[in-house]
Amino acid sequence: MTIAATSRDYSLIGRDSALAVANGLAAAEWYHTDVERKAMKALMQRSDGPAIRDTAIWIGAMVVFAGLGIWFWGSWIAVPFFLAYGVLYGSGGDSRWHECGHGTAFKTRWMNDVVYQIACFMMMRNPVTWRWSHARHHTDTIIVGRDPEISVMRPPDLLRVVLSFVGVLDVWHGLTDMVRNAAGVVSAEEKTFIPEMEQAKVVRVARIWAAIYAVTIVVAIAMGSWLPLVIVGGPRLYGAWHHVLTGLLQHGGLADNVTDHRLNSRSVLMNPVSRFIYWNMNYHVEHHMFPMVPYHALPKLHELIKHDLPAANSSMWDAYREMVPAFLRQLRNEDYFLKRELPATAKPYREELHGDAAAAE
Amino acid sequence: MGEWIEACGSDDVEEEDVIRFDHAGRVFAIYRSPDDEYFATDGLCTHEHVSLADGLVMDEIIECPKHNGRFNYKTGEAKGAPVCVNLRTYRVKVEGGAVFVEV
Q1: How many CB atoms lie within 10 A of CB A73?
Q2: Mutate to test the interface with B, among A32, A40, A44, A110 (most CBs of B within 10 A)
């Protein structure tokens, strides 16, 4: 059967945005696995302990690795220390941004807020803009024209995917957005998801960050050394690879324009180091279905609802083995997507709004 | 003066928890605080109309299950992004083991 490819318009103010609203895909009611209220309440409970421990390890390790990197600066011995520091900064910052943005990492609100601000700076994501964009990502997950956080659009731009491993495009967009916001300009797309009363905060933060980066550059010039930029800002480039490695798996190659997270999100079993850096976001179907559950309770949630989900991929390697061929097929037919088998114990997929003619057998 | 409507039994809500109450096409949330007082608000988040009864009650805060927007359920005050609009609150009384809401 020949399937005519459809061209998707990912603009938040374009044709597919209006179509999503007209088709009932915007702010729709999503499928949830049934979980008894008592069990869900227990899973949602907040605790400071795990996040304080993990944050102390995260920051402590960054201080140690950066310190050793500075100590050995000028020698090749510094390289592995900065590579480790970079991953904690440029990838660990991504998951801390995410969890603290949800407000679930810590029980104490100010702790979430402090780590959120630090992680946003590290990831070059305006804390106001990205709080709202991520709220939209959860409202309209992988709905074309509505979700501002679709990392791989169809047909996939594989060069862009490769470049994302070294953060080139993210840093370019992060810095140009910062300069634009610092100049007092909030874009038309940003205005679709940031309420008017919040827009002044976007500009204020951008100006503070621009000042910090300007000081860093001045110090580097004064020292005649790249070292300040290797410590501040630079890790967003050379340490980004891990968050891209794990983050691409969240939705890559799966369905779009559906209202069932089991169709558009992927859970992957991972090694403990990656799970620490990623703060358990490998349980991504579970996170999208129940975003109130803190990262440290996601393994328990996974055990509770896995009977209703497609089996988690057994490793990152296993997940890439299914995702990369899906990307390649989407180059020829952008309507193609992976549709994983549900266990016999699961309720059927909710796909009444989805034409699944191009799904994998 | 509004009309007093029986919403639920006082034991239907656990301490530091919330349940949903539907009446005349409207959705309400009925709260029982940790110090055993009852409160009522509109039942849908002012941000994206998600049922707050699926959320988490912490002291005097109800957190929306979808985007973690937080309200003080005693006053209805929105406590920060992504919620900006306060919740409407309703008077509550407990009589004969039942919770009544003035709608």
Answers
A1: 15
A2: A44
